[in-house]
Amino acid sequence: MTMPPTGPGYPGYGYQGQPGPYPPNPGHPPQGAPPPYPLPPPGGRYPQGPLGPPPPKKSHTGLWITLGVLAFVVVGAVIAGGVALVGNSDGSIVHNADDVESGQCLEVTSGSDSLKAEKISCDTTDFHYVVASKSFTRFGCGLSYSTFWFAGNEKEVLCLAQVFQAGKCYHLPESSGADTTSLAQAREIDCGQPIPAGEATNFKIETKESRDPDCPPGQGKYYVAEPKPTGYCVSLLE
Known about the structure:
Helix content is 7%, strand content 28%. The protein has 1 helix and 11 strands, in the order αβββββββββββ.
């Protein structure tokens, strides 16, 4: 969920390399290129300003920018991904990258220290993921996508887009590379009872469109180009 600048190349920054059976994800900027928007400090925390008189009330434009930065943290909350749970003979369970194609919808659940991805119908209105693309590296999916890799083979990576519904509210956990099950912790919540967030994020989907959305002042944005263009305008819950 980001506030990228306008112009060519977002999210289609080219991933340069040799072609292979898994198309590289277009959301990953080329090596050495500056990031398209400011990155947060480690851990998702934003430093407080020096002590002094209360700051003036922000304009709608300033609030929109602030929400955009926080929206980036929302994406980062699940980009850490996890490890697939293997050994189940159920045909709906995803054992490797060859079990799914782009556009397949998945439900992700967790074990003690691993994840299980199960193929589901894309008609569901429950929170789920959809396969956007595949990558040979855990770092090839780009900032707008979550990363799911497989036990014993981290070169088989699924790049997943989160699927939300307009009018619903969601909780995404904090980003932690040490927690391999964070993908399964993202969930729908009661809009009137947000979960104490800490470094996590609670938000409401105001609108959902089949394009890069033009969100009004006071709202952030989450946009993915794959597997099909989908954009959301969001507001953070207190």
